[in-house]
Amino acid sequence: MERLRIGIVIPAYNEAETIADVVNSAKQYGVPIVVDDGSKDHTARLASLAGGDVVRHDENKGYDEALNSGFKRSAELESEVVITLDGDGQHESGLIREFVSKIEDGSDVVVGIRNRKQRFAERLFAWYTLVRFGIRDPLCGMKAYRIKVYNDMGRFDTYGSIGTQLMLFAAKKGYKLDQLAVNINSRKGRSRFGQFFWGNYRIIRAMLMSIWHVK
Hints:
The protein is α/β, with parallel strands linked by helices. The chain has eight helices and seven strands. It has a single domain (6-213), classed as Spore Coat Polysaccharide Biosynthesis Protein SpsA, Chain A. Helix 5 (120-133) packs parallel to helix 8 (196-213). The radius of gyration is 16 Å and the shape is globular.
């Protein structure tokens, strides 16, 4: 793994309870880049104390804007590979090694496949991407990208895709994609994504925008 410079982008909003553990477990694999998306708690301070490279938003801008900032910082640090990882402790940091191994074997993007999907809209979006691109779980927050894919597009997200636009861009452009099963741990506290109606609305909107943009 020493052959590649790895940036680990961790969007975080009010994740003081878990962020230090996530950073501590991730930093053995690369540089943890924590994007504190306008948190009202001590997320940024605890992430910094744990050894994270912290990017701060003065106000909450949302998941995709946090990823935009994280990828920009990764490029500034001259990362060769960027891993996205949730700040709530649901992803096992040890899987980073397996994601990077697939990149080393020639993949340009590696997409996680969760062991469960909770919302109807998640299953609908997954059906669309499976039929169109062979991608089984577009909304899994753990993914790996060669930085050249990001540089080719020039930005991670432009329309609020819930972390899917760069992946779909890569699929459309013919980059080599691979997939990897990931177990999802139970998160501590309330989900930041939104409850039933709002969560499903956001996912269906992202899917429709993807159909429009990725023709």
